[in-house]
Design brief:
The structure is a homotrimer. By secondary structure, the first copy, chain A, is mainly β. The first copy, chain A, is built from no helices and 27 strands.
């Protein structure tokens, strides 16, 4: 019962599962610089909402949902039942587990890892370059890691390479400069421990 | 003298006032999950700029303006002379008074209330879920309230349920964790009082 | 070898250099309020990615690149080899030097100045109105100045009129309320000096 809108652009070498919906003004399977024909897989039941752009070479599981005007670059591995909210950006070489939810207007740079059930709130910004524009910076990118079931509150910023432990909670507006232990609650700029998750 | 671009998609059951302009690549009246035919009203003089998406069931007053690529979900009540800037998102069940201005890239979640003349700066993020993903969280959402003529500075974050008092001013980049009294000026993370508005 | 997509809208009085690519669902040369026929120049080698909107009256150098869904208002002067990332917004009367990079989801308001090699990270927000909505505010806008080779980290906020000195580095998530000296490293809310750039 899926459908592909007449205005949507689907490039060659895109493999769609059953019941995939692609709404108006979307572009799926965009060739990237150096593209050598890598296929794009999007599993059954996906709903790609309007004005979304997905590059080639992604491997995306079942039940994928995007909001509107989402941007997903190339060569990511994305699990089942993942949702990426309106205006969010996922760059390339990102690893996303199952049942991850990225809310609206978030930014997930290259080499980030979001484990199963991780949750990013609206406007969350992950970073991966300690010294932007330094010579060789592209060889030293460190994506943050958000472990299983951790939650990162709205408009929080994660510094490069930071690890947010399993079940941890990062308060809204925090700037996370150090690793966050499992189940810790942190908040502030810079973020400091303020409690522990009990559930 | 309004006009509807040839590429714009206008769904059934959308009622437009006089002189409404809908630019290219917009989608207006998008049916939502559980949609039972609720109409969408957009008052006279509206300008809906390109790539904007507005769901069904909204009741929007006269003189409505959107920037480009705005996203408005369903069942909101929006007053007269409201402007929502480029890339901003208004979720569902939001109440917006008259002459409210939401600047660019802002996020306004479900159950938020913005009273007359409220002003949200660019990238302002309101939140409504204290414990994201907790069981039953959707029954306990608390939208912030921004009272009459209050201003929330750029990139500020409001925690769930926070009330920003009338005429108050929230400094840019603040993280507001408690209610802000009428006419207070607050700033910082967490935001603290730094003065009073005298005008 | 450039190309203009069939779905792109290019308004009259747009002058394109050689090898310019304009992707699907873009709109280039949008007339602004009070437009008196000012031309739009985009230099050779530009790549304007999908869903991008560029208003009339811009003078843009060679090698211009946009991400997807970028928004550039009218009457800006933009140098050579400038890149503006996905979802970023540049308002009007902005001056941008050569080799400037604006990353994703950034906001650059009216009267901002970005000198050569300046770098803005993802979600960086510049501001220009000290007292939003005050009478006469539009006559007193003060855009920030980001000097040569300065870098502003992800999700940082610059207050109106702030000057970030040459080669300086603003830490991610900072709220910059005062001028930043040349080569200084600042961080926090409000941002304070934490070191000096040595390279």
């Amino acid at each position: 019962m899926g459908s592909i809108a007449a205005t949507a652009v689907v490039h060659p070498n895109v493999s769609l599962g059953e019941d995939v919906t692609i709404e108006d003004f979307c572009i799926v399977g965009v060739p990237f610089q150096g593209w050598a024909g890598e296929a794009t897989f999007i599993g059954s039941g996906a709903v790609i909402r309007s004005h979304t752009v997905i590059y080639a070479g992604n491997r995306i599981g079942r039940g994928f949902q995007t909001g509107h005007k989402v941007n997903v670059r190339e060569l990511n591995v994305i699990g089942d039942d993942v949702s990426i909210g309106t205006h969010s950006i996922v760059e390339h070489h990102v690893t996303i587990g199952n049942r991850v939810r990225i809310h609206s207007q978030a930014f997930v740079p290259e080499f980030s890892v979001l484990e199963d059930e991780a949750w990013l709130g609206p406007n969350v910004v992950l970073t991966n370059a300690r010294y932007p524009r330094e010579p060789g910076v592209k060889d030293r990118l460190e994506g943050p890691v958000v472990r299983r079931n951790a939650k990162v509150g709205a408009n929080a910023t994660l510094l490069p390479g930071v690890v947010v432990g399993a079940d941890a909670l990062v308060g809204a507006g925090s700037v996370v400069t150090r690793d966050v232990p499992e189940r810790a609650i942190v908040a502030g700029n810079p973020a400091r421990p303020i409690g522990t998750v009990h559930y």
